[in-house]
Amino acid sequence: MNLGFLGSGRITLSIINGVLNSKVRVQKIFISYRNRNISKKLSKKFKKVVVLKDNQEIINKSNLVFLAITPIVGKKILPKLKFKSDQKIISFISTIKIDKIKKYTKNKKITRVIPLPFINMRKGPIIIFPKDKQIKKFFSNLGTVIEVKKENLSKGFWSTSSFMASFYNLLNTTSSWLTSKGVKKNEAEKYTKELFLALSEDAINKNKTSLKQLVVESQTPGGTNAYVLKELQKKKFYKLQIKVLNSIFKKF
Ligand SMILES: NC(=O)c1ccc[n+]([C@@H]2O[C@H](COP(=O)([O-])OP(=O)(O)OC[C@H]3O[C@@H](n4cnc5c(N)ncnc54)[C@H](OP(=O)(O)O)[C@@H]3O)[C@@H](O)[C@H]2O)c1
User: Fold this and answer.
1) pLDDT score at 8
2) Under CATH, what is the fold of the domain 162-249?
3) CATH 3.40.50.720 domain extents, the chain
4) Is residue 212 predicted with pLDDT exceeding 90?
5) Is 5 in the pocket of ligand 1 (CB under 6 A)?
6) Whose CA is nearest to atom 2 of ligand 1?
7) Please, which residues have CB within 8 angstroms of residue 149's CB and are 6 or more apart in sequence?
8) Against a cut of 0.90, is the pTM above it?
9) Is 175 in contact with 189 (CB distance < 8 Å)?
10) What CATH code is assigned to 2-149?
11) How much distance in Å is there from the Cα of 14 to the middle of ligand 1?
12) Does the CB atom of residue 69 touch ligand 1 within 6 A?
């Protein structure tokens, strides 16, 4: 099987690293010349990666075509390209719906997928719409696949996946605060990363325990965890989180 990527940006870099370190069998991966640095880096690292200047040539040579371009570029270039009728197209474009992609590509075999950068470690959730056995099998090698039944549902997942920077900011604030109390920066960062990693791993391992229950189990009445939670709730920290989620939701 040959894969083709229109757009060699950050997500293409992560996916190709994930694919070529996984069990997925591929003969060749054809990628865009753009971005030049990333395409150069990928073709240098992997023999199977071939850089092509012409997007049409990528499509002609591939069985699966991945749209790893921004919405603006997609609207501009897709209507000018010719896709094969039996070719499956996987779109990572956040704000273009399937109907529009069908119109632009004149192809009916479209799947919308939400990958995340950790796909390079073959970790993290991957949202797929609509269901497709082949695409599900492919991405199951790269993370935890969640298939959604309605296209509109993926909007919620796009919204929650927009919490990456603010999540890291939470870690950064925690670590910087520790530093302000006299802890060395590298120790503070190490501690913070390990703390949040352990919390996430614990939640995954306790797969029968709901998140709500984890909130209960991780505090003792009158204890320090209970105090921090109550203070944040009183200051409307979580209400603000919902408010921001609602406003980002409107963008998808
Ligand atoms: N990054 C993520 O974690 C993530 C996750 C899920 C979905 N997505 C979606 O995936 C898409 C790509 O995201 P990204 O983060 O990888 O963006 P990005 O790093 O900006 O990559 C987009 C790439 O498209 C290239 N490009 C521009 N015009 C082109 C053309 N005419 N033909 C071929 N390639 C062209 C750009 O090259 P130049 O640099 O030379 O302009 C750039 O390398 C977006 O729609 C995004 O919403 C991203």
Assistant:
1) 96
2) ProC C-terminal domain-like fold (1.10.3730)
3) 2-149
4) yes
5) no
6) 11
7) 129, 130, 131
8) yes
9) yes
10) 3.40.50.720
11) 12
12) yes
